[in-house]
Amino acid sequence: MNYPNKIKKEKQTISHSNRGMNLEYDLDLTNNYYKNNNIALIYKKATPIKVTKIQNVCDNKAIIKEGFFQKKSTTDYNGVYKGYYIDFEAKETKNKTFFPINNIHKHQIEHLQRVIENKGIAFIIIYFVSLNKLFFINGLDIINYIKQNNYTNIKIDWIYKYGILIEQKYKPRIDYIKIIDKILEARWKKY
Amino acid sequence: MNYPNKIKKEKQTISHSNRGMNLEYDLDLTNNYYKNNNIALIYKKATPIKVTKIQNVCDNKAIIKEGFFQKKSTTDYNGVYKGYYIDFEAKETKNKTFFPINNIHKHQIEHLQRVIENKGIAFIIIYFVSLNKLFFINGLDIINYIKQNNYTNIKIDWIYKYGILIEQKYKPRIDYIKIIDKILEARWKKY
Questions:
Q1: Nearest to B49, CA basis, from B74, B62, B68
Q2: What ipTM score was computed for the predicted complex, to two decimals?
Q3: Taking CA B37 as the corner, what is the angle to CA B35 and CA B41, rounded to the nearest 5 degrees?
Q4: What is the pLDDT of residues B94-134, one digit of tens each?
Q5: B66/A65 touch (CB, cutoff 8 Å), yes or no
Q6: Among the partner residues B46, B62, B120, nearest to A46 by beta-carbon distance
Q7: CA distance A145 to chain B (A)
Q8: Are B158 and B135 in contact (CB under 8 A)?
Q9: Which of A123, B99, B133, B187 could bond to B154 as cystine, CB 3.0-4.6 Å?
Q10: What ranges make up the beta strands (E) of chain B?
Q11: A119: nearest CB among B82, B115, B120
C-alpha cells in the first residue's frame, strides 16, 4: 500500500515511540545523521583492550590470541559541534524511581570535571527504559549532586528537576544537539 | 652529586635534544603535562579491535580469545583546549627529503576535512627522524596540497614553507598548544 510520505513518516514515528529505544544503536543513528548532514561530528570511542598475546601471520598482519577488556577511564562519546568540544556518557536503567549512580565510575566523573575545567561541554544522557524517557543531565549538575550527596542513588524527582527531557523523534532519534544549542545561547548571554 | 636545580634542568634539556625523540612517548608526556597543569585535555584514541571469540570466566569477566586490529577510520588524538575541539594525527618518517603521503590514509584526510567543516582545529604533526625536526601542518594546508597534487609525496621544501617548526623542550616535550594559540589569535582577528 502506498501512503503519502507524510502519513508514512507519522506511522513510523508512532511505531518507534511505542517500541522504546535501543540507546546505543539510536545514538549511533543520531550521530550518523549529524555527520551526514554536516551538523556535528561525534564518535563513540573504541573500547580499550589490553592485548597480551599476538600471532603474526603473513603481510604484517596479526591475530590477537589473548586480550582483556579494560575499564574506560573516560566517557563513551566525544566530538565537535560548531568548533566546541562535546563529551558525554550514555547510561540506561530499568529502575523507575532512581538512577543507580554506581553506573557511572568515579574516574568518569573526574573526566567530566576536567572537560568542564577546559571549557568543554560535558553531560550525561540517561535512559529510563521502563518509563521510556530520556534525560540530558548537565555535567556540572551531576558533579554538584555528588559533592552534596556523595555517591547515593539519584531519585527520579531530582532527574525531573535538573534534567532536560530529550524528545524522541524519527530523525534524528535523540536530538541532543538541540539542548546544546540552548546551553551555548545561555553561555553567550553571560558575556 | 647535587646540582642546583637550574643546572640540573639544563643538563637534562641538552641530553634530551641530543638523543632525538620517541614521538608517541613524547606526545604522551606532553599530553600528561597539559592535563596535570590544566592547560588542555588531549587523549590518544584506543586502537579499534574486532573481537571474534570470547571466553567467559567468573565474575562477568571475559578473555578475548581471537581478535583483529582494525584500521583507524579517524585520527590518533583528540580533545579540548579552552573549549575548542582539537584533532590531529602524528606521523614520523626516516626520509630526509620528503614525507611519504601514503602514511596518512584517505579516510583520515576525509576525517580531518569533516573536523574543519565543523570548525574544529585539525592538524598533523610530522617528525623527520633523521633531521630530528618536528613540524605542525595545518589540516587545511594538507588537504589543499592533496587537492592540487593528488597523493604525491610531499617534498621537504613544501614542509618548510607551509609547516611550523615545533620547538623540542624539556617540559612539555612537544609544545603544540603554543602554535594553536597563534591559530586562534589569527581566527579572532578575522572577525
A1: B68
A2: 0.85
A3: 25
A4: 999 999 999 999 999 999 999 999 999 999 999 999 999 99
A5: yes
A6: B46
A7: 23
A8: no
A9: B99
A10: 41-44, 49-56, 62-69, 77-81, 84-93, 98-99, 121-128, 133-138, 154-155, 164-165
A11: B82
